[in-house]
Task: structure prediction
Amino acid sequence: LRHHRIVVIECGADPERADMAKLRSIFNGVLRVGEVGVAVKLYSAVEPRRVSFRLLHGSDRVPVRQRMVSPQTGEEVETEQIRKGLALPGGMVVLRDEELAELAPEPSQELEVRGFVEPGALSHPWFARPYYLGPGGEEADKYSAFVQGLRREGKHGLVRWTMRKKVYRGVLLPIGEALALISLRTADEVVATDALPQFAWPAPSTQELAMARQLIGMLEAEPGLDQFIDHYAEQVAALAEAKAAGRPAQMPAAKPERARPASLAEALAASLAQIEEQRVA
Amino acid sequence: LPESVPPRSFWSGTVSFGLVSIPVSLYSAIRSSAGVSLRMLGPDGAPLRREYVCPKHERALERDELVRAYELESGELVVLTDEELEALAPEASQDIEIQRFVALTELSPLLFERPYFMLPSSSATKPYRLLARVLEEDRRAGLASFVMRGQQHVVAVLAEDGLLRAQTLRFVTELRSPARIEQAPAEVDEREVERLRAVIRDHAEGEIDRRELEDESRARVYALAEQKLAEGRDVIERPADAEDEGGEAEIIDLIRVIERSLERPSPPPPA
Result:
């Protein structure tokens, strides 16, 4: 079914326009550390701009609609008649809307700091979505003092809050003169690999390790992440424009296949030689 | 229910640095069975099936009858095929070519989008192990850009527990500048800063208690369902032929996939 989902392409935001407009907060609350509360506003740190595709019926180019049907009768079931079920090993149990509403967390304005930990306490798979926390209410001074305090202590906070009827956990960190709050995935979602068995693999040779280190060192550079630009979204738009106008689309040529060295040691040695050559040239 | 369905790889190709090229496949490092996925049931309790319908023909469509269209600003819909989309970045759709290596600490967690396992897809795992070992020991990541499922991604290739991982990153242009939120005064009251530092120290933890990251909302929903099942309330006798049609019941044991792809015997060392 995933195949049929509408595919979404990321589209870069215009930095100049983006810099002018102030953001609107999506949640106002109080960041609480023990007895201390700091009024804050929460903002999404990610642009929502995305380009999407639509699914059409191929033969008549009409956008399709989705419907839920009974597999027995093939008849469509109206939304009001649909019930929700949870599949358990022992059977399917219907959960009623009022039961689900009762289980939803209580709305709260609090963003509770559960503790402060060393940066890097969680690795990359845990991080889900970034937000910013800005000052809220009358206590902007206290907010600034908290940002400074957190920065000087060199710690990150683990925060828990409820938003849109959902419990969130996040990592709180200073960023510039502000705070970032990055929501976290749950322990069920993140697959741990520390319990993997040890495989009896032969270790790479000292020579291979040394050459790999040397090669990686030569390719070491500043992250330069702003050099990765999503031209793809523009290219998709250009392709669609060209097709609509009946023009042949300009396609980039495929890169010629490189000759593959026979062994790992040869590949490493050839890579090092190639980089040396480029440097001399 | 089958005990598990074999997880599908999201992408297969090569990861390369210099002239070293390593065949790999990407698998999601996030369990799709996590959270609560409720099934849509009919009034008789039968699990429903999702269908795509053409409004003109009023009939359900098969997969191969569907096409993908891009909407122009004029509102015109232009059909684009998978082949056309893949051809836009031909080399990027087959090879994750590492363009540079950076220290792991230089990657902001604000950029992290989705984690994948990058597993060897050839029995010659020596280059794979070499890259994993050096990246893990030196705490470095390789940066590259590639196309997967119709989207271009920036990706950090890094290693943990002997495995290569691919972490997709947001484009820098997708991140909003913190200068766009309400600003706080730059002047701070030093006594207040010291007081708050003391509060922060009071709440310092050695490490994160994993219980903090448990999904207790999910646990509550499951507890209610278990209770109703035990009491026989709202339990549906499932007809034998109403097996799971949707993809939601996907139960994936990623660990097993990882073990399988690593267990493949590597060829004997050259004499």
